[in-house]
Structure formats: structure tokens, C-alpha cells
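Notes to self after the call with IL:
- keep both proteins in one doc
- input above output, always
- annotate only the second one for now

Protein 1:
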Amino acid sequence: MSRFIALFAVCLVALASCGPKEDSAKPEAGGGDFKVALLTPGPISDSGWNALAYEGLKGVESEMGATVSNQEATGTQIRDAMRSYAQKGYQLVFGHGFEYNEPAAEVAKDFPDTVFVSSSGGLTAPNVGAFRFYLEQGFYLCGFMAGLMSKTGVVAMIGGMDVPSIKSTFRGFAAGAKAARPDIEVKEIYTGNFTDSGAAKQATLQAIAQGADFVIHQANNAAQGVFDACKEKGVFAFGANADQNANESGVVIASGVIVARPAFLELAKRVKEKTYKGEILLMGMEVGAIDFVLNPALADKVPADVKEKVEALKAQIKSNEVAVPKDEF
């Protein structure tokens, strides 16, 4: 009998292991009939690109009473995650990155009652669109400050993946640096991923060895490697996407910031009210979606005339007197 019981127990374990896998999405929050999902390429604990989108999602939850959920999804996971949320009755599925636009356009054909929106991308349909944060404006101001303050005449940009949306923000930074100092040299290095902080640190050390004394990044959750390298070599860094001025490294002199909550709320309201039309929206400083924030802890390191020039330029960008260059994609 004991052998039979043991065999029966083994069979139960085997059956359980073959059963449905637990959903990788975080449990739903909120209790409203309006349901909004967020897909991110990395963890929302990155204090940067993914965290700012999650802040936008939580704004939709708190201010609209929506039921919300989020999960990481990359590569082949993206389409499956989108389909899963649509099948569960989510009215809005937001993919935070250029890489979500093409899968959204494909999946949306099967789910006309779900709106799929990505942050950047050029494909649209009645229930597919994108809103592009005009982060180039914030990067332009970072570059302008770097150009005014650089002692070596060399600044650097450290990226993860070499994708159109990141290259465009780097174009903004380089343009800002050259507006301040036409002869400045701008280094551009990519590591090939957003997770390897060691690779990000080595890329930054390489740029610093080539003379860079100001560094900006688009490294997502690998950004700490950039900041650690800057601290080690005594150069300044810029935060990107989120306000990263309080980073423990103590080297982030300012940040080019996306303010996601207002944009997410406006999008969610249009979807809930069924007034959304598939389109590409450009969200910039004029609507409060982009900002440039000087680190108050390092404000004494920035000469008064530099502060004045940066603030004057910021006002001109906000009023559309100065058009910041960006790539179309």
C-alpha cells in the first residue's frame, strides 16, 4: 500500500507541473470596469524609462479608478502578452517603447475593441497609435549645458540598443552641445542591451578615456554603470527619462525628464470615452510632458551665466521659438 500511495503522490506532482503556468503579469490593481495594461522592456524598479511609465499607469489607476496591470515583455513575448490582455477585456494596452508599435499593429486586427498604443513608432490604425515624448527637447538642454561647461571639448552619449528612438534623443543632445560650442566633439557608444551595467560602465570609461567630461545615457536599467564610471573618474553625468538627480553616485548634474502621468491620463480618457483615433501624438514641453531639471545639490557647480542661458533656452523651446531637431521614424 505504501508503494501505491507514493506512486499516487508522484503522479499528482507530475500533473500539477503540467498544468497552466501562473500569469507573469503583476496582479490586477484597482476595481474599475475600465482596464489598462502596460508592457515594459525592463523592470519598473529602474528609476528611469520603465519606472516613469509605471508612474503614468498608477496615475490612471488612482485618478480614473481603472483596473491596471503591467508586465515585462520583450521579443516574442510581446504579441502573446498583447493578445492575453485583449482576451481578458482590457480596453487599452500600452507598450512602452518603439519595439511595441509593429506587434501592436499586427495584433490589433484581431481585437477591434482594444486600443493598442506605443511610445513612439509610425504605424497607425483605427485602434493603433503612438504618442511620442519629445525627449529630444530635454536632451538638447542637457547638451547645451554640457557644451557651455565642458573643459575638454568632448562629451559622450552611452546607449543600450541602437534603435531609432534613442538615436533621435542623442541627435538632440549633440545639437544642443554644438549650439553652445560648435567645435565640440560628441562620442556615441552603444552596448547592445539595457541590462548589462558592467558593459555600460566599460563603455563610459572608454568615452572618458577619450576625453569626455560630461556623459548622458539611454541605458535604462543599466544606467547605474554609467553613473559609477563617472563617479570613479570624477566627471558629470546627466539623468535621462526620469529625474535621476538623487542617484547615489552624486554625479548627476541635471536630468532630461519625461512627465508621463498627464500624457497617460489624456490617452486613457480618450479611450474610455471612445473618442480615441489612431494617430501619432507628439508630447513636449508646451504640454508639460518634458522637463529639464537641474540638480539642486550640485547647483553651486553650475556658473550663474550658464544657468541663465539654459533657462532662457528652455523658455524658448517651451514657447516653440526654438525647434529642437528630431528624427522621423
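Protein 2 (the one to annotate):
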Amino acid sequence: MICVHAGLDPRWEDPVGALTRLDPLRDEPDLSFAISARYCDARGARPGRDWPAPPAPFRPWHEFWPPNASEKRTVVYGHWARAGLLLRPQLRGLDSGCVWGGKLSAWIAEEDRIVQVPAARAYSDYDG
């Protein structure tokens, strides 16, 4: 399993290796990708904005996962409330908008089960 805040760059042959070497206190492009990417192209280039959804060649970063048939790990990520809960083979997108009044979602990996709790209220204004 790989857990990342936002996304994995499709150029990373070894995502864990690429992320492990990063200093979280430095402004690095790979770190920026991991913590804020939503869309990219096949070379990892990101659009200037991600809303509204950018045109081709940009696609959701997770459409490039898994990078090859031998990859068996599941990626667990968040940072994309607008996309909502995403459950696909080898992908668990857990941001279901709790801060905006949606739900808080958790994945129980051992059971491959999702648990959700409704937000008590919106904790931030949605800029929609």
C-alpha cells in the first residue's frame, strides 16, 4: 500500500523512493505533486488550474495508476473532495468532503471496507 496526500507523478518508477528522499521543509516540485496534484499529463506536467477540469492532455493523476501490470500496491489518497469517494482496483480516494459538510471516510484495509461518518456541520465555506 502507498499512502499519499494528493497524488503520484506518473514518471515515478518507485513512488516510495521518490517521496522518501524529500525534505518536507523545502519547496520541491515532487513534494508539491504529492501534496496538491489533481490533474496531470502522462509526463507529470500539471495545468495552471484544476477547476474547472482542464482540457486534454490533462487527466486525473490516478488514471495513470497502476503504471504497469506488475504493480500490485493500492494507493490511498485524499485532497479531492470535489471528486468524492473513489473506490477502484488499487485506488482508494477517501476525501468525501467532511470539511464542507460531507462525510469523513476511512478505509479498513484488512477488510477492504469503507466506514463513513456524516460531518456534524460544515467547517469551511464551500467556494464551489
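Annotation: The chain has one domain: 2-118. The chain has a mean pLDDT of 94.
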